[in-house]
């Protein structure tokens, strides 16, 4: 077979061989058309074959439509709106840390909550460590401050985990579990049940107790006796600590409210005037004096206050000094240290002021007869 000067092979009749034309895609079938365009298999016009203008125009229009659609899809993906920015909650800064062992865990926990709720502010360890250092005071700050001028910083000042370990090593409890075990052993309810269970759960978490039976036994052992009685009276033993807390705390609050109601009822009952007492006859004393005070006996030496008289006059029985536990309970509930009521303090307690006034009247009336007897004996 001979060749032309351009290197193309000649056929038997001396004409160049024409390559077989690729089958044209069906322009009415979008899938076939898209596949051929994607695979770059759209045929190019053959110069040796007559071109149908109508067919060529249809092919060009189909290609333009596919290119336009492809560009539109790309623009749509690039112009898709960014995900909405989540507004982080405002969080109060933790309390400053002065080096107390019993407050270190609370300080670390509060800092971790801030980091979790505001991740955009604390994206790296160096920022977190610097934030914690800004909350140090006293000895912890004095120990770290010289290291901040080093360039580069010590590694533990740029690593959050290592800085927490540094605080726990230098200012934490070296025997945290032992301390928690001793405190749990001596723990007793002295104020409200909610305060008792808050402290109880703190020690349980440190010790890592998981078995519910010993936890419930220990929790019941430290409760006040009247709450233990209520648990026994209910006939139901809680299976978990959560069930016990859900039963005891509302019960303790209700019993405390009832105790306050009983005190209020007793005070109102004792403050009412008695109707079966025969009124005393007017004497030669002036009307103002007789209306103010009428002595029951002229012999004041024989007059001795009894418990009944004291109760009717003051509304309460004689009492000794308050225990430390009772004082703390009244402070926790914002109660008056004198009458255990809300709304005022012991300095402006109306019962305390009334008692003081009655004591002054008794003192003055007892002084008057004794001075007269003294003059008579002199004569």
List keywords for this structure.
379 residues; mainly alpha; 54% helix; elongated; disordered C terminus
Q: Runs with pLDDT <50, length 5+? A: 10-16, 18-22, 283-317, 370-379
Subunit organisation of the chains: single chain
**Strand percent estimate:** under 5%
Shape: elongated
Record field, number of beta strands: 0
Q: Please compute the radius of gyration using only Cα atoms.
A: 47 Å
Distance between the termini: 175 Å
> Mean pLDDT, rounded to whole units?
76
Topology pattern, helix = H, strand = E: HHHHHHHHHHHHHHH
Major beta-sheet overview: none
How much helix is in the residues?
Answer: 40-55%
Q: What structural category characterises the helix and strand content?
A: mainly alpha
Number of helical stretches of at least 4 residues: 15
Helices and strands in order:
Blueprint: H1 30-38, H2 53-78, H3 104-117, H4 125-134, H5 139-144, H6 160-171, H7 176-185, H8 193-207, H9 212-221, H10 225-234, H11 241-271, H12 287-292, H13 307-314, H14 324-332, H15 350-378
Helix pairs in contact: 7-8
């Amino acid at each position: 077979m001979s060749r032309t000067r351009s290197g193309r092979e000649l056929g038997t009749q001396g004409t160049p061989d024409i390559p077989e034309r690729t089958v044209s895609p069906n322009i009415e079938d979008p899938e076939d058309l898209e596949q051929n365009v994607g695979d770059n298999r759209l045929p190019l016009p053959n110069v040796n074959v007559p071109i149908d203008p109508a067919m060529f125009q249809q092919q060009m229009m189909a290609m333009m439509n596919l290119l336009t659609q492809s560009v539109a899809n790309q623009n749509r993906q690039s112009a898709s709106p960014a995900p909405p920015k989540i507004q982080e909650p405002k969080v109060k800064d933790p309390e400053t840390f002065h080096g107390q062992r019993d407050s270190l865990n609370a300080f670390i926990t509060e800092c971790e909550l801030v980091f979790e709720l505001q991740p955009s502010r604390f994206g790296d360890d160096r920022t977190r460590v610097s934030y914690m250092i800004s909350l140090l005071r006293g000895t912890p700050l004095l120990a770290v401050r010289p290291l901040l001028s080093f360039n580069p910083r010590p590694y533990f000042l740029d690593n959050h985990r290592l800085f927490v370990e540094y605080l726990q090593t230098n200012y934490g409890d070296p025997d945290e579990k032992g301390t928690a075990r001793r405190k749990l052993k001596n723990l007793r309810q002295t104020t409200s049940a909610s305060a008792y269970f808050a402290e109880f759960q703190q020690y349980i978490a440190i010790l890592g107790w998981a078995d519910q039976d010993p936890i419930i036994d220990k929790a019941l052992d430290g409760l006040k006796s009247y709450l233990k009685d209520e648990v026994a009276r209910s006939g139901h033993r809680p299976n978990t600590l959560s069930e016990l807390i859900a039963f005891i705390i509302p019960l303790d609050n209700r019993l405390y409210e009832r105790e306050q109601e009983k005190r209020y009822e007793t005070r109102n009952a004792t403050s009412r005037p008695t109707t079966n007492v025969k009124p005393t006859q007017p004497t030669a004393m002036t009307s103002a004096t007789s209306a103010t005070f009428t002595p029951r006996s002229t012999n004041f030496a024989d007059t001795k206050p009894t418990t009944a008289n004291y109760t009717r006059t003051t509304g309460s029985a004689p009492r000794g000094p308050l225990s430390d536990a009772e004082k703390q309970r009244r402070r926790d509930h914002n109660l008056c240290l004198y009458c255990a009521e809300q709304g005022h303090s012991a300095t402006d307690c109306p019962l305390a002021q009334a008692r003081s006034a009655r004591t002054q009247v008794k003192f003055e009336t007892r002084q008057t007869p004794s001075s007269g007897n003294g003059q008579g004996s002199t004569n």
